[in-house]
């Protein structure tokens, strides 16, 4: 088992970071009143951990007995067809579509990533909630309990799906509670946000990460030299999950730790930084073509294009003169937006690289002649 | 064993005024409508204004006062935007409802005029087609039904519909009115709210009473009965002023790396960037030492970034771009981004 | 048939003689061919009419299902064979066209059933349409179908496109038999234009012979060598010209032939442009006209341009590279702007398509301000297609690993999987991460397409 999972706090009183939030959640549950919840915060800040701990708090240890299911949901969709040679639209009734989704469920809760379903996400959410509401657990007093649906990556749900979500939230509020989890609350519509209790989970500070790493080291019986944990924390960019993963990688790589031990980077980040130095070294269509090949390789490995772009910007900014930084960040924002609207992300990534090369070259020419 | 949840009623519902005359702050509207109630005759109505100013409350109150609790179910149809509201729904649901004739007999001390009421909440989110379809329906059943449209933006209601209705504009609530309402709720719920928290609440809810009450309830749930201004801010998703100021002063400093660090911090803290933009906007507009031209440049950038965010662009890059452009505008650097 | 099933899958592009081969074999063995014939397709108005009169519409797929069911239950018995005792080959030529996952699933079940159950020799002919665009759902479906049938026990034979030489030979033979005088140049032209499709070539030949006195618009030998100037060839009435003229258009746009000076003197007086925006007049028709001949496949066009344009820029011109890239980005933006509208507006889509195509084409023409002097370049097939395919495959793999690899209590986001877990697992030396080798994946998929790749290169070189 990975350390990330092994040392994930199981209960609300055991959490190390976000103790204040945990206390509040505990209070919330102890009053027996649980509204819909929306957890938001950057990746690796501990949203999931808190959610799991919260479920355990509500339902007891049975929340841990989860099973993973790959289920195919049959969903009836009413759709309209466009017969273009007739140039009128008609309601062509309903058809059934299959949506395949991985769910993780215990007797009391179901967790899923609705955005895995692509543009059929909205049907899925409704359908699953309906089914959950149907087979609710019944407690000893013969009263119907409620179930919790954990929806991940709500920010990636389409607007329609979010819209239908708010209706569902009201309709089934007696039988199930929703816990939504999202990286940014800007992308969750106001209507959904206002129906939930919003809980912001900030990324842990570096000191907090150091605390966690030291805690793990103690449990594992490892000696860590002074300042080593701090270096990992600094590299992790305030992402706790990453810090723990890196820590474990360090452990496998070399133990006992030495103070100047290299901290293994994520391979794709390494790769992006190579791309950045390629770009800085030469600016020509030929080099652009080579860069394209490397970008392709990153894309092949499912690294999301916007993350590539952000990382590339980060690497480039490190090496730039400050007068260029404005312009470069401006173009990065421009092309990332384009990428979001377009389909072929490589076109936009490449346009950014080309623009950077062009800016940088004219800068070099004007400075050094 | 699954614990049983007592579903607590949202305070917004719990403290919704039941009588038209109790509706806060909308004096003219209340005057006209009280008159309507006395004569128990009313035209189609269109309520518009910013959210949380009492439009839905008023509509529901009228319906209740006209029909009383017993007849309410059979005489009033509420449709809100979350329902599937295509043309078909409008046609069938409304037709079915309106088609049954009603008599006029006073019932339990309520006027019970001989018509039914259809309340269409969030009417501005209806499609144009649906609105057009409604036009016919309104005429066909005009004898037996009255429509109450509720919307935020009157400009999104097609003209033929709007012209068939008596229009009522709802004003944003002032701080005093909100304050008295909030204090009333606090008294009922046994909450402690100091004056600082109260004014914070009024300012973060921006004249929207429903939001204010929702914030209050959320805060009460999380933090118990004594609530401070800080608690309210954390519940509302408003970004603390220090954070916004930090970004802004980084922009003033003209140091790109400093601004970049602040932007990173905002993202790591998980603050929503759209919210950040609107708070930055307030600061920029209020600043005395920024020239109009600079303000214009900055605000243009805000607008662009906001649009990009709506399209789903990355929050970090957009905020960084805004910060860098603001910096450029403040130090009067020439604008680049020329094609 | 060494333990495998009695079914032979015959796959290949159209017009390479799949069905003909089966017939020839049957003739040779002296067996009867019994062919599953499809019902006449029902057109929509007819359907409306029928449903009024109570007739039930039966889709082709339904019929096919029924047929397989019959085979399963009764085998192929007398009523079908009309009592003939001779051995038979069952031939399924015209598979129902399917669209969408669920229908496709039905077809697949049907065929698998057939493969497993049928006891007499059976040939299923599958025509690969348009294998180019691998992003297309239906293409992927067909590939999957082939694989699944193969694993169900069917034997598979792949037909490659017929070479130019063999087509030439065939055509010459036909000419001799029909006693027609057709000169070698025309035959060569037809053979090359047919794209490996014999049927098409023969049809063209017949068409040509209908007008005995009209020589085909014959390009002279030296013009043949210089493809890009050879507009006329593509107006040949019998050219199987879809892809070729796309290449032709690409060639025009990429090579960017221009006059060496302004031909119209008065340009300056009428409209003053900054120097950096001035370009010499084009030595070709308006790009839109060229696009018209290329059947305006905007998406394909922009992808091809994107893949190849960098080769045609001069060494130093990084500004040009950006300009081109920005226009291609615009084109992609346009092409995507109608996406997500479920009820499609065909008119609007057409306009957007052609607008995007012309943005891409003109962008490339305008952006490439310093074209390199003309030299030989092979036009590559967009690598993007393979990248997308293997990225999709990796994603699926990741999803399937997700659940069994980490016995964690939550589901991990895909992004987190890709950017954090997989790299770390590699450090931790988990076996599961071996699939990470990007190069391996890409190479793998290139192999799959190598045939096709060579083919398109050949075509260009031939020209």
Automatic annotation (TrEMBL), chain A:
InterPro entries: AAA+_ATPase, DNA_pol3_clamp-load_cplx_C, DNA_Rep/Repair_Clamp_Loader, P-loop_NTPase, RFC_lid. CDD domains: AAA, HLD_clamp_RFC. SMART domains: AAA (SM00382). Pfam families: DNA_pol3_delta2, RCF1-5-like_lid, RFC_C. Residues 33-204 form the AAA+ ATPase domain. Keywords: ATP-binding, DNA replication, Nucleotide-binding. Heterotetramer of subunits RFC2, RFC3, RFC4 and RFC5 that can form a complex with RFC1. This is Subunit of heteropentameric Replication factor C (RF-C). It comes from Datura stramonium (Jimsonweed).
UniProtKB/TrEMBL annotation, chain B:
InterPro entries: AAA+_ATPase, ATPase_AAA_core, CbxX/CfxQ, DNA_pol3_clamp-load_cplx_C, DNA_Rep/Repair_Clamp_Loader, P-loop_NTPase, Rep_factorC_C, RFC_lid. The keyword Transcription regulation does not apply. It comes from the Eukaryota. Residues 41-173 form the AAA+ ATPase domain. Keywords: ATP-binding, DNA replication, Nucleotide-binding. Pfam families: AAA, RCF1-5-like_lid, Rep_fac_C. Heterotetramer of subunits RFC2, RFC3, RFC4 and RFC5 that can form a complex with RFC1. Belongs to the activator 1 small subunits family. This is Subunit of heteropentameric Replication factor C (RF-C). It comes from Datura stramonium.
UniProtKB/TrEMBL annotation, chain C:
Residues 4-148 form the AAA+ ATPase domain. PANTHER family: CELL CYCLE CHECKPOINT PROTEIN RAD17. It comes from the Eukaryota. Transmembrane segments: none annotated. InterPro entries: AAA+_ATPase, Checkpoint_prot_Rad17_Rad24, P-loop_NTPase, RFC_lid. Belongs to the rad17/RAD24 family. Keywords: ATP-binding, Cell cycle, DNA damage, Nucleotide-binding, Nucleus. This is AAA+ ATPase domain-containing protein. Pfam families: Rad17 (PF03215). It is found in: Nucleus. Its main location: nucleus. Heterotetramer of subunits RFC2, RFC3, RFC4 and RFC5 that can form a complex with RFC1.
